[in-house]
């Protein structure tokens, strides 16, 4: 009544299990007749190869592990679709885990995937990740690792990301061109390179355009969700001299801030302008729609998967990790100055 095994097929055919295995794998030493009988029996009795046994024999499976901070985030959901399109065509399946923005879960996910002998690993680190021993262990085990979006620069792996500095510079320059003078930055979490790069791009744009930087307008909200954006907006609302424009670390944060400002009776963009990152669908649903940096999530997934497959196909020691920077686009909408300057 259980799953049919090679031994079950061997008993039914009156041959050894090793002969059945070689027949199913089209071994040249096995006759065409035996191969045909083995294939017919496998189909008749519903035989499926044991992936665990195969991975033990080959020391790796046909599974590629994927670790993302949050599956519910449209950016990562779209990115996963890009990964799956490439890996499926290459004969691999993906096993997706989410860290829920915690280091402990990211470490647990990494251990679980490597224990299951994944062929390779694709990952974006969590907001809590500031130590990287778990990633170094993956590399030491000889498991190909490619990072995307949020990457650890000092680890020698394949990387796919955007130019976060230039993108933030572009968005901040747009707000300046619209006439805003007190521009705030809603940051995610200190210690993450993505956060630092976007902040530095924002800072450089202010400097190059001769706009003062007000340290009190740079708020680290500790996360990248809508609730964090609302918390940041609350801090700004308490100020005697609040910002007249804000660049948020991502779209969910910007939308969260947007909703809190509207509840407080502020007009957007007349009283306060907003810009975000990622180009998520929700950014176009609010009114006025959110100005945002559109990130190519699907293409990022495809590119990261392609880098991993390239490493898997290379001979041991012959692969040199690559870093690929993808282009972004500034989508100017009503939350800044789509209808004219301030």
TrEMBL record:
Residues 4-58 form the HTH lacI-type domain. GO terms for molecular function: DNA-binding transcription factor activity; transcription cis-regulatory region binding. Coiled coil: none annotated. SUPFAM superfamilies: lambda repressor-like DNA-binding domains, Periplasmic binding protein-like I. Gene3D superfamilies: 3.40.50.2300, lambda repressor-like DNA-binding domains. Keywords: DNA-binding, Transcription, Transcription regulation. The keyword Transcription regulation applies. Pfam families: LacI, Peripla_BP_3. CDD domains: HTH_LacI, PBP1_LacI_sugar_binding-like. This is Transcriptional regulator, LacI family.
């Amino acid at each position: 009544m259980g799953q049919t095994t090679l031994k079950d097929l061997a008993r039914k055919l009156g041959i050894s299990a090793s002969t059945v295995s070689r027949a199913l794998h089209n071994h040249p030493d096995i006759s065409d007749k035996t191969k045909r009988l083995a294939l017919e029996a496998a189909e008749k009795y519903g035989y499926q190869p044991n992936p665990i046994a195969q991975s033990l024999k080959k020391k790796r499976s046909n599974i590629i592990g994927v670790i993302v901070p949050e599956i519910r985030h449209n950016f990562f959901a779209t990115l996963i679709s890009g990964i799956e399109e490439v890996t499926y065509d290459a004969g691999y399946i993906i096993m997706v885990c989410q860290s829920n923005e915690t280091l402990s879960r990211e470490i647990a996910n990494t251990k679980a995937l490597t224990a299951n002998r994944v062929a390779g690993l694709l990952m974006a680190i969590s907001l809590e990740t500031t130590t990287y021993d778990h990633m170094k262990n993956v590399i030491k085990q000889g498991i190909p690792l490619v990072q995307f979006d949020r990457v650890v620069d000092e680890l020698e792996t394949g990387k796919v990301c955007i130019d976060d500095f230039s993108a933030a510079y572009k968005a901040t320059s747009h707000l300046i061109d619209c006439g805003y003078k007190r521009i705030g930055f809603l940051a995610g979490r200190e210690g993450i390179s993505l956060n630092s790069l976007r902040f530095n791009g924002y800072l450089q744009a202010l400097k190059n355009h001769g706009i003062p930087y007000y340290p009190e307008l740079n708020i680290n909200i500790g996360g990248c969700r809508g609730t964090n954006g609302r918390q940041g907006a609350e801090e700004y609302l308490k100020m005697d001299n609040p910002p007249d424009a804000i660049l948020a670390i991502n779209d969910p944060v910007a939308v969260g801030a947007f909703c809190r400002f509207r509840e407080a009776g502020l007009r957007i963009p007349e009283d306060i302008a907003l810009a975000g990152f990622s180009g998520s669908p929700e950014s176009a649903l609010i009114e006025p729609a959110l100005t945002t940096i559109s990130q190519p999530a699907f293409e990022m997934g495809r590119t990261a998967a392609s880098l991993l497959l390239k490493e898997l196909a290379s001979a041991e020691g012959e692969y040199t990790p690559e870093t690929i920077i993808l282009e972004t686009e500034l989508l100017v909408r009503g939350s800044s100055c789509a209808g004219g300057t301030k």
